[in-house]
Amino acid sequence: MRKLLEDYMNWGFQLERALNYEVVDAQVLDASTLSGIAFVGMGGSGIVGDILSKYFEREIDIPVATIKSYVLPRYVNSDWLVIAVSYSGNTLETLSAFYEATRRRAKVGVVASGGQLALLAERRGLPRVIVEKDYLPRAALPSLLAGTLGLLNKLIELDISLEKGVEVLRDFSALNEAENLAKYLYGGIPVFVVSESFYPVGLRAKNEINENAKIASKVEVIPEWGHNDIVGWEGNPRNWLRVVAIKGDQDPAIDFAIDYLRELGHDVRTLEIGRYGYFETVLYGSWLVGLASVFLAGLRGVDPEVTKSIEKYKEFVRSYLMVTQDYVL
Ligand code: PA5
């Protein structure tokens, strides 16, 4: 528990170091004409794809996909840039999609702390960023995000900086807010409501609560929320649901949702995560919910670091992929 909490508390320092990660072999790849960009990765690494896709869908003219599967969609071909992100470098879904991308001769880059993925990238001379080790994947978000952006900056000639994020991640008033959030969530099922533009933070919140605090949780996204989930709240308010509205920008629809849920008798907490820009807001929001999930684990008396069920699932995937794929992982 203590190490994970310290790792989260030190996110500002982690990000500061990550801004200087070396991008290796970027020059081997010609990404001047691309039909699309795909991020492949799972869980705490896959969230990087969610964060970047949401950003790029408003900034660039080609499709950007997040793939959380061992299956690479058919539309990904040799004109696509595929970035495989896996903190351990050993996640089989990510390795499987990576192999398939190289088989299709897509332009492939890698972000990992080591493992098979880093080894394969080195052997094949692929563009890569090797991030620092010794974190749990979910605690390495600043490294993975900065590493992936650093790689993209080089490959497709962008100039995106996360520098202001360092300052945001040193605003330790977040600790108090996270502790209060954990107290509010304790004993209930967290339901995060978020606008579509900050969906990655809502998803991150759900995942952090699942993995660190070991409880079920869900995330609802506006505007889709208003077309189905909204009806589900018409029944009697349940006192075991804990609603948290995550506000990253001014979206009147989220205020509508807050008012609607309050009218139904729900005690809706609001997290104001908006900071300088998209990335600072996402980093701050992810930090806040990460800290809250560790505090909640403390209140529940569970170890936030151990994720036995994920290991069990990974064992299953290994046996499954061994018999269905024609290459040895
Ligand atoms: O946060 C976690 O520990 C998990 O969600 C992992 O990120 C997930 O299992 C994938 O592993 P990796 O990030 O090493 O590819």
The CATH class of the largest domain is identified as: Alpha Beta
Proportion in β-strands:
5-15%
Under the CATH scheme, which architecture of the largest domain would be assigned? 3-Layer(aba) Sandwich
Instruction: Report the C-alpha radius of gyration, rounded.
Output: 20 Å
Give the number of DSSP strands: 9
Low-pLDDT windows of residues:
none
**Annotated CATH homologous superfamily of the largest domain:** Glucose-6-phosphate isomerase like protein, domain 1
**Whole-number total of structural domains:** 2
Order of helices and strands: HHEHEEHEHEHHHEHEHEHEHH
How many angstroms separate the termini?
32 Å
Alpha plus pi helix count = 13
Helicity, in percent? 40-55%
Summarize the structure.
With 329 residues, the protein is of the alpha/beta class. It has 13 helices and nine strands. It has two domains: 20-160, Rossmann fold; 166-300, Rossmann fold, CATH 3.40.50.
